[in-house]
Write the structure tokens for this entry.
Amino acid sequence: MSFDVDRLLRLWTDPLPEDSAAEAAFREVYADPVSVNGAPVSATSLVARARALHGVFDGLERQVLDVVDGGGRVAVAFRLSGRQVGTLATSAGPLPPTGRVLDLRVIDVLTITEGRISQIWMVADELGALVAMDAVRLSPPRADADRDGRPVGGSPADLSLPTDLEQLADEELNRGSSL
């Protein structure tokens, strides 16, 4: 019997019932607690995360991109999208509401135990979403750096530092620090 990916994603995209019924719905699909990227997360916390996700998007939609079902392990690649009306928490910091359509690609690798998700390793393409929202910009590699970004050639004095770092270095030198 294959894992019901649509049932899983509906928990995250469809409106949730009141708290106790929402927790019960999550417990039908997830162990309580479930391991998420190595940390235990309760059904109550999953419901709070789902409600937070609903607060980020207006018209939240899901699209399954691919599923690999190996019985006890299931990998799901999917896309969540909608107009961003709330703050999105990312590992780079919060993204304030933009009012624009935000597209978030996610891959979950699920471990299924006795028909429920007992472990999740999850990766979201937050950087791609942040770039698309103009929240971050990638800068070209430095001309004075090697392939790994380390400065090459010249002396440390030849490197250009951001103005605030230059000022800090000058202050340290004036105090007699050898940096």
Remarks:
- Strands lie at 30-36, 39-41, 57-69, 73-84, 88-90, 93-95, 101-113, 116-124.
- The radius of gyration is 23 Å.
- The longest helix spans residues 43-56.
- The domain at 5-132 is CATH 3.10.450.50 (Nuclear Transport Factor 2; Chain: A,).
